[in-house]
Design brief:
mainly alpha; 6 helices; 70% helix; globular
């Protein structure tokens, strides 16, 4: 694995890819090709594993997210950045044995602080319920 970027930066790259999948039906491989071409971006191996994992397990992940929302909430009500962050963190919690739940949750909260309008508490609550 190329260790030239930190795990946080790799997660951030993964988040961006997952976020782009919300708007683009071309599939992950085309999104990556476009990113590498237009932004001269080299996608980190870990970021790729996260995005591919979310793509493969999206229905299961969304089911877990949906089951752990407050009454009256649906996935469609979640902002796109928050949904991408939740998908990434749930994938890490449920499918990555090398990432402690607390790390996945903390990193998701940090991404939320950077990319959402004060939705870090919401993300922390949903992920905390899923991790139990």
């Amino acid at each position: 694995m190329d260790n030239s970027i930190s795990r946080y930066k790799a997660r951030e790259q993964g988040f961006i890819l997952i976020f782009e999948m919300l708007f683009n039906d071309d599939g992950l491989e085309q999104i990556i090709a476009n990113a590498e071409e237009s932004r001269d971006l080299e996608v980190d191996d870990y970021a790729l594993k996260l995005a591919r994992g979310v793509e493969e397990e999206k229905d299961y992940i969304d089911g877990l997210i949906g089951e752990n929302l407050k009454k009256g909430w649906t996935i469609r009500r979640i902002s796109k950045p928050s949904l991408a962050i939740l998908r990434l963190a749930v994938y890490e919690i449920k499918f990555r044995g090398d990432v402690p739940d607390s790390v996945a949750i903390n990193e998701a909260v940090e991404l939320a602080k950077k990319y959402t309008i004060d939705e870090s508490g919401f993300i922390n609550g949903v992920l905390g319920a899923i991790a139990k």
